[in-house]
Design a protein that fits this description.
This protein is an alpha/beta fold and 398 residues long. It contains 16 helices and 16 strands. The strands form three sheets. The protein has a nine-stranded mixed sheet, sandwiched between helices. The longest helix is centred in the N-terminal third of the chain and has 19 residues. It binds iron/sulfur cluster. Iron/sulfur cluster binds next to loops.
Length: 398
């Protein structure tokens, strides 16, 4: 893996390829949830946000002059954060319109914005719809007041269905909710309740993540100090298995380890990541990948702004993967999908035979009952799902 001097990265140095996805990181939250390690700041005012909007469009201009940015390869746009819906309506409109002027978004068929249930209004949803956004994702996390308090989420369970109603009234048909399981103190019964509440909302797409204790988050510190106790592994596994069973029953089967959808409702932007696509990340901490080059923007608002002011990419952690590393990483990403690593698709993306590359590890792990496969490819077995991260590491090692 080659490290490149981050100060020198420009879009012109990258392979001449089209970006398929565009990610925009909006780094503002009104409160920091205790489990979260995404980059965001909570002390902001309209002036700070205005400056961000202006710099974001300037950053888009850096890309506008490149092959990646000029091409009409973009199919998906995703606004995450932070809390994108915290941006005042007119500022958000300015970003949406500004991006349409700077990129060719004519072939985009999915444009998602993450919305906090506490911030959604009808007017806001209508504006998003009017400007071309066609999918909204709501961070519900749990329908238990106590669990939301443990996570330090500042919304009421009832606000999720209210905001979904508003989104539907504004004309949104593609909707997602995020849920978290294995929250300290959560029982299997309580998780089943949250899941049923989520299903009853009828979004057709649901993401269910097991709580992780990211280093340096307040939640990880609390666990270390014994203030909270993590869920037992066996309970977490039971929650995971129940989720897969129940959502398959209602017709939203898993298509990825943590994602479930009605047929056709899968998140195309995330599929693009898991299929090794090229994407541009805008905003502080936004990650990018172009044909084996990957980096992320400085996870610091002021430092990101300074780089943009100088007309350069705010890139850090720039890596250029060798062909084999890239292929192995793609194998690892594809394995997250229920269909696993499909050799034909793999060869189409990498120009490399996945059968030869992975034959050793596939044989070994199949013997242990962790992988299954046939002529078309290989995928995680039921037993393999429980240790997916360890299997991914094996694929990387070879
Ligand atoms: S709202 Fe989302 S991004 Fe902001 S702190 Fe909470 S989990 Fe993190």
């Amino acid at each position: 893996m080659m490290q490149t001097n981050p100060g020198h990265l420009t879009p012109q140095m990258l392979p001449k390829a089209m970006a398929e996805g565009l990610y925009v990181h909006v780094p503002f939250c009104f409160h920091k949830c205790h489990y979260c390690d995404f980059y965001s700041i909570t002390r902001q005012d309209e002036g700070r946000m205005e400056k961000f909007v202006e710099r974001l469009l300037r950053e888009a201009e850096v890309w506008e002059r490149s092959v990646a940015g000029q091409s009409n390869g973009l199919r998906t746009v995703f606004f995450g954060g932070g809390t994108p819906s915290l941006l005042p309506l007119e500022m958000m409109r300015k970003i949406l319109q500004g991006l349409k002027l700077r990129f060719d978004l004519s072939a985009v068929d999915e444009w998602t914005v993450e919305v906090n249930p506490a911030t959604a209004t009808l007017e806001y949803c209508q504006m998003l719809k009017q400007e071309g956004v066609n999918r909204l994702s709501f961070g519900a996390q749990s329908f238990s007041v106590n669990e939301l308090a443990t996570l330090e989420r500042h919304h009421e369970p009832g606000q999720v269905s209210e905001s979904l109603q508003l989104a539907k009234r504004a004309g949104f048909e593609r909707l997602n909710i995020d849920l978290i399981y294995a929250i300290p103190g959560q029982t299997l019964e309580s998780w089943k309740h949250s899941l049923e509440m989520g299903v009853a909302l009828g979004t057709g797409h649901i993401s269910c993540y097991g709580l992780t204790y990211e280093p340096n988050t307040p939640m990880a510190v609390k666990k270390r100090l014994g203030v909270v106790k993590g869920a037992e592994e066996s309970l977490e596994l039971e929650m995971f298995r129940h989720t897969r069973r129940r959502l398959a029953e209602v017709g939203w089967p898993a298509y990825e380890i943590s994602n479930y959808a009605k047929k056709g409702e899968e998140c195309r932007h995330n599929l693009m990541y898991w299929r090794g696509g090229n994407y541009i990340g805008l905003g502080p901490s936004g990650a990018s990948h172009m044909e084996g080059w990957r980096w992320r923007n400085r996870p610091h608002l002021r430092e990101w702004e300074e780089a943009v002011d100088e007309g350069r990419l705010a890139a850090v952690e720039v890596e250029q993967l060798s062909a084999e590393q890239r292929a192995r990483e793609l194998g690892m990403l594809m394995l997250r999908l229920c269909r696993g690593v499909n050799y034909e698709e793999f060869a189409g993306r990498m120009g490399m035979d996945g059968r030869a590359l992975f034959s050793g590890v596939v044989q070994r792990l199949t013997k242990h009952g962790l992988l299954e496969g046939d002529q078309s490819g290989f995928w995680l077995s039921e037993g393999g799902l429980a240790v997916a991260d360890a299997i991914a590491a094996e694929l990387l090692r070879g």
